[in-house]
Amino acid sequence: MGNSNSLRIVGLNSPIEKGASEGKSMIELHDDSRSVPVSTTRNLATLKGGSESFGTNCVWRIVLASIKTAFFSDKINLLLPCGPLAMLVDQLSSRQGWVFLLSLLGIIPLAERLGWATEQMAFYTGPTVGGLLNATFGNATELIISMHAMKGGMIRLVQQSLLGSILSNMLLVLGCALFIGGVANRNREQIFNRSSVGMNVGLLLMAVMGLLFPAVLHVTQTELHIGTSELALSRFTSCLMLLAYGIYIFFQLTNQKQEYVPTKEDGSPSGSPVEEELADVSKWESLIWLGLLTLFISILSEYLVNAIEGAASAMDVPVAFISVILLPIVGNAAEHASAIMFAVKDKLDISLGVAVGSSTQISMFVTPLCVVVGWIIGRPMDLDFQLFETATLFMTVLVVAFILQEGTSNYFKGLMLLFCYMIVAASFFVHIDPEYIRELSGRFPR
Predict the structure, then answer these.
(1) pTM across the whole model
(2) Which of 18, 177, 364, 397 pairs as cysteine with 339 (C-beta 3.0–4.6 A)?
């Protein structure tokens, strides 16, 4: 796919056929990287005036078409004005609750569009680089929010928001997908590939082990060097987790097979065939949108993080509830919609890849990466998520593993996951950190 553009004048007939007085032509712009027809009727005298104004006009048409495709093709983009409103409220008032709420709503469409831009880029890079892009940008919203919070010394906010993203994907997103998919396909049992899910569950159990040992080491007070051994163990474990996840990605990309189509006992396919899709924008447009959307999310995330403590006081809810329950809804907006859509179409393997795969990315890539980045910038980010949070994650992984072990799904399994998420949400609504944890967090003021 090249990037060169070619102009073709269509319908420019002789004066005998069209009449010299008409002097009009139809111009189409053809982009080799994608087909973007841009038609305009111009007077021939204008064309003779030079190609510079025509070229500028074509560029503006491409820009406007790209903006229309990016921001006016989905109803969720109606929330985009909430971002500028959050900045305006922050400048004109001290209502941090409103700043937080508007920032939260403003990031949702940006996160969804970032996922869209990543998918568009994957059309041109192929499966190998596309998989790496999905691994990098799939949870970019959580990573950006975590980096802003860690820069400000809000270590517990980073830990709880990452934990909340894992719990949200495994219980809320997957639960909604299984429940709605089961209701939409209630006349038949949905089937998925157990081997792929088993690898993700294995990685999640490894992540639980990485979080469990630092927490137990702290609770039992059996550190060799008090205050340093736990942090050193976390950094060592994080490096191993990143290495393991990198090998997992390499294994997946080098052992790609033909798309798995679940079958019934009689051998007939249980799902609909995969339809061929085309990119909505060109390669360079995808790259530009990736950069711009990441920048927008980064700017808005700073307002969101700065308003969390004020919002917790204004709404009279624990910071843990905001971090574990509310924040992940933003980062998982794209995953939530995609998982439900594929489950309704009986493409359950893709839904599981979105929900469980995203949890694996956060636990095995984003979380240890935050530990390493904190090591570099001098923040004591570790894997000690405290015993309450670690126990919650451990039970969640066990519940999901048991529900998915049969390779089949129905609406009741999804309903159980949703009930489990309600229990988790209620638990964090009444949970606060011990006093010594809050004192430790205060050592790194903003």
Answers:
(1) 0.73
(2) 177
